[in-house]
């Protein structure tokens, strides 16, 4: 359900007939006593404040690299001058009140019977002005990497407005300062402290909106001339944006603390509010939405994940076209923008790949039997239940948190319709999802090329390979399934052979193991096809050659993986590290099995292969005996290896006897 949009009521204006001798207001200072000391001085302070803001927000972007804080240091000096002037005004005011000199000319519009504009006290307004300067000084010190000084100013700000923290004149400032303290403590690794400040900021916002509902004074208005006062709409926007920042920071804090569900909720709300307020950078927003989709995907919430990705794709389009290379050459800034746009769109494409892959894998998990093949009965059962599932999706779709505005919602919905969010139950649906994923593989590879992005490029290839493997599960034709696995070999084997094993050892091991498994799977498929096509138990020489080739290729890559475990001196580790324990023992087990499956017309060759097979089975069994903790990792393989260690010698002796008899 979309977050409630607060509709601010019109600001209450307290009108009164001006005093006969009231001074003309030249500044937006509801408490006339400060301005009355010297109206021209007060206007000068307002102008100084505007200058300090301009230095901080505009001029600082132009500062040279060798003096990056020049403008911020100038702004700091101006803020200090403003603070001193305010303290002098305060002292003058105190003297006037003590001596009873507060005259009728000091009473201005907005103040009557001790009450001032918005119903807040003069003391509160004086504190608010000083607190605002403390806040801006605190932010200034933090931005110039002087964190302790920044914290001191921020805490001074909190002390000054503690009595009026939920009043309309101070509530916006309170939320801003607590946001900053949250960021400060989070940067120091004190996440719980940061969380406390941010949750207090959120509570302040919620209490104020429940009680008042109208937009409060923005802290910049403390130093604005009357003609520069914010409109009701702008005041609302700034206040809502401050709270949006609170939710954004809380999303980060909850993520760090492992409260992922809460983090996702706040992240989703933040993104939605940014669109509503029209305060976002298209590419940054799109990348955050795509990242959020990964949370939903991992939770199996594909409808929400698809919505995030569709919104990311549409909103990223608002960033404009990628500049051409010719244009980029003319401007270094354009070249940098071009590269950033291409990278972020490639990152979004990678999130789409994960969406398609995970949905296919979840479908495979739901449909496979105990030997990993498609369960036809289960398939029909799920198909029968699909109609009710679609109807349920429609209901939940309407109550889901949706992104978009009138300009973008239709585009997002249109993109969503092109990609399914329900698990595919047959080859046709699986292929449609596969093709979507493959399209995004192509997009991602256009940026993450092998030359310059080795790790990223290979990860994309591995996802592409996994897409083929998931699709093959739904394919009934075994020959076509085998061709899909051959496509996986064609994309991974050249990379594996060319990859530098010294710099990319872990990745190369992954590729070796995957290639070994692919060849092994292809061999099983080819053998099944051959047995189905042949009327006799004897296979023709071409088929035998093909099966032995696949068997040998699988064993080769498993053995390459095992060789990669050797030390620089060429020794295998006596104790396998945890991250390679299972793959190493599984590789040994598979190699043992592969040697025993090689079809040999010559008995001596068969004996040689069986002895190699026995050696590998012995290694697995002996390692399990010597390291009982390994049993949990390879329970099935260990049990079968022990069994084969006792059975294979009998078979080997029979072959030896047969060979002697033949001679």
Automatic annotation (TrEMBL):
- Report biased composition (Basic and acidic residues) as residue ranges: 99-113
Its BP terms in the Gene Ontology are:
central nervous system projection neuron axonogenesis; efferent axon development in posterior lateral line nerve; enteric nervous system development; microtubule cytoskeleton organization; neuron projection maintenance
Q: Name one GO cellular component term.
A: cytoskeleton
Report the principal subcellular site: cytoplasm
Entry superkingdom: Eukaryota
Annotated region described as Disordered, given as residue ranges: 7-32, 93-113
Bias (Basic residues) occurs at: 13-23
User: What does the UniProt keyword field contain?
Assistant: Cytoplasm, Cytoskeleton
Localisation per UniProt entry: Cytoplasm, Cytoskeleton
Keyword Electron transport found: no
Q: Which family does it belong to?
A: Belongs to the KIF-binding protein family.
Please state what the protein is called. KIF-binding protein
Q: Which organism is it from?
A: Gadus morhua (Atlantic cod)
